[in-house]
Design brief:
The protein is of the alpha+beta class. It has 2 domains: 3-73, Glutaredoxin (3-Layer(aba) Sandwich); 84-217, Up-down Bundle (Glutathione S-transferase Yfyf (Class Pi), Chain A, domain 2), CATH 1.20.1050. 52% of the residues lie in helices and 7% in strands. The chain is built from 8 helices and 4 strands. Strands 2-1-3-4 form a 4-stranded mixed β-sheet, with helices on one face. The radius of gyration is 17 Å and the shape is globular.
């Protein structure tokens, strides 16, 4: 049995969970709080970050490499397109959302509102939260632009780009800070992602002491 060490609101962890579900691959989820720096977990990943996949009991794959690994080893339901040009666009957008969106929005909102509280990492910064709230509009506009030009964010097919964007938004939506009413085109795109069977287990995540807004699990908002 493959094991996935993850944290529920970790966007990279969520991306792997969706990818595994899209491919119909069973796994045992193990919640890991990376700030605890457990020696047993550090033995798997010295960086101390999630996600970490242990496949077939011996193959350890860390971080963004997990999704590439899944497509190479488990070819069914590919989430990377066939042509090099199309794959490059998917990877560009994955990097956009996994690095740029995460740094400018998710860390500022989820990190301050949830991770600091759960991990006893200090008081949230109102200045950092305001920055995240300002930055998210730019990213929602970009999602709307891409969704208007293409069937999916990176092109004709659903891909890791859509998953990367969707999981970032789902994490921020958990704390109720996505201004959906100001960005209807992005909201319509996210509704398509939110309704996919692979995505629904993410909507069932609950962080003790930090409940999501009532609409969080509603597929029609």
């Amino acid at each position: 049995m493959r094991i996935l060490f993850h944290y529920p609101l970790s966007s990279p962890s969520r991306r792997v969970r969706v990818a595994l579900a899209e491919k119909g691959l069973e796994f045992e989820p193990v919640i890991e709080q990376p700030w605890r720096r457990r020696p047993e977990f550090l033995a798997l990943n010295p960086a101390g970050t999630v996600p970490v996949l242990v496949d077939d009991g011996s193959v350890v794959v860390v971080g963004s490499a997990i999704c590439e690994y899944l497509d190479e080893v488990y070819g069914r339901t590919p989430l990377l397109p066939a042509s090099p040009k199309a794959r490059a666009e998917v990877r560009r957008l994955v990097e956009w959302f996994e690095i740029k969106f995460d740094r400018e929005v998710t860390e500022n909102l989820v990190g301050e509102k949830v991770i600091k509280r759960v991990g006893n990492l200090g008081e949230p910064s109102s200045l950092v939260i305001r920055a995240g709230l300002a930055n998210i509009h730019y990213h929602l506009d970009y999602i709307a632009f891409l969704a208007e030009q293409r069937s999916w964010l990176a092109g004709d097919g659903f891909s890791y780009a859509d998953i990367a964007a969707g999981v970032q938004l789902s994490a921020v939506d958990y704390v109720g800070l996505v201004p959906w009413d100001e960005h209807p085109e992005a909201k319509d795109w996210y509704a398509r992602i939110k309704s996919r069977p692979s995505f629904r287990p993410l909507l069932a995540d609950l962080i003790p002491g930090v409940p999501p807004p009532p609409y969080y699990t509603d597929l029609d908002f």
